[in-house]
TrEMBL record:
Protein family according to the UniProt entry: Belongs to the G-protein coupled receptor 1 family.
Organism: Phrynosoma platyrhinos
Keywords in alphabetical order: Cell membrane, G-protein coupled receptor, Membrane, Olfaction, Receptor, Sensory transduction, Transducer, Transmembrane, Transmembrane helix
UniProt name for this protein: Olfactory receptor
Subcellular location, record wording: Cell membrane; Membrane
């Protein structure tokens, strides 16, 4: 259904635009540099896929990890795989191409799925903070409050919220007429650089984007910081071992939140004005953060490390 909606919107938009494809500026035009970047980002992408898939398989395999926290973590890994796949494969292909083009429909699809997974991940990180808050501040009622049904409802809600957000943002973007410049100043299609190419005044759209994406990012970031502030205060009453474990989990989560929401606030909390740092921040957002999440959550999490040792230990023994 989502693909049909995008197709209908694309057809309607192309009726009022002369642009059938866009040119992406990419990260570099130097052949040698592009080859090096291709190798670097190919390795990073493969590690992203492998790391997040391992987390998902480990959580499914180990019954000790069948808890709300790891249920949400497996969802985070799934979103990270989807999020990086929206932009990185196209970027890799462009490193080997002389002309970095993307069709109008492909550009629309990239914007839609990029914002779908981005917004869903923001909501998921907020839900994960709430999960930690209940687990640490109200441990006696944790499994009652965060039961299986509640987890499923929360997950469905965040995906629905991400879809509505993305449809609204993409819809505003493709209704604009595009009849002149077609060079997108980035290595993927995103709303801010694309609407700059519209042959009409986009000030109102830019304000709506800031009030939509920017506000979501800022509000969720504030909620997350306040939540973890409350959690840290409540940790003073825990025993040393439990306190250390909870602090480790919260530190991992805060690291992910800072890396991810930092980009969103930087890009979407201002009108469509280009900065030299935009591409660097976008690279970190699309290619680096999805790779860091598995590392952060496995290296700082004793339960995950135990489950990984158990899983791979069983495979080694089975092969023997």
């Amino acid at each position: 259904m989502e693909e049909r909606v995008i197709s209908n919107w694309t057809s309607a938009a192309q009726n009022q635009t002369l642009v059938t494809e866009f040119l992406l500026t990419g990260l570099s035009n130097n052949p040698q540099t592009q080859l090096v970047l291709f190798v670097v980002f190919l390795v990073a992408y493969l590690l992203t896929l492998a790391g997040n898939l391992i987390i998902m398989v480990t959580i499914v395999h180990d019954r000790g990890l069948h808890t709300p926290m790891y249920f949400f973590l497996s969802n985070l890994s799934l979103i990270d795989i989807c999020h990086s796949t929206v932009t990185v494969p196209k970027m890799l292909a462009d490193f080997l191409s002389t002309e970095k083009t993307i069709s109008f429909g492909g550009c629309v699809a990239q914007m839609f799925f990029l914002h779908l997974f981005t917004c869903t991940e923001i909501f998921l990180l907020t839900v994960m903070a709430y999960d930690r808050y209940v687990a640490i501040c109200n441990p006696m009622h944790y499994l009652t409050v965060m039961n299986h049904k509640v987890c499923l409802i929360l997950t469905g809600t965040i995906w629905l919220g991400g879809t509505v957000h993305s449809l609204a943002l993409t819809g505003m973007t493709i209704k604009l007429p595009y009849c002149g410049p077609r060079k997108v100043d980035n290595f993927f299609c995103d709303v801010p650089p694309v609407i700059k190419l519209a042959c009409t005044n986009t000030y109102v759209i830019e304000i709506l984007i800031v009030s939509n994406s920017g506000l979501i990012s800022v509000v969720c970031f504030v909620v997350l910081v306040v939540s973890y502030g409350v959690i840290l205060v409540s940790l003073r009453n825990h025993f040393a071992e439990g306190q250390r474990k909870a602090l480790s989990t919260c530190a991992a989560h805060l690291t992910v939140v800072t890396l991810f929401l930092g980009h969103c606030i930087f890009i979407y909390s201002r009108p469509s004005t280009s900065f030299a740092e935009d591409k660097i921040v976008s690279v970190f957002f699309t290619a680096v953060t999805p790779l860091l999440n598995p590392i952060i959550y496995t290296l700082r999490n004793e339960d995950m490390k135990r489950a990984l040792h158990k899983l791979f230990g069983q495979k080694v023994n089975a092969e023997k």
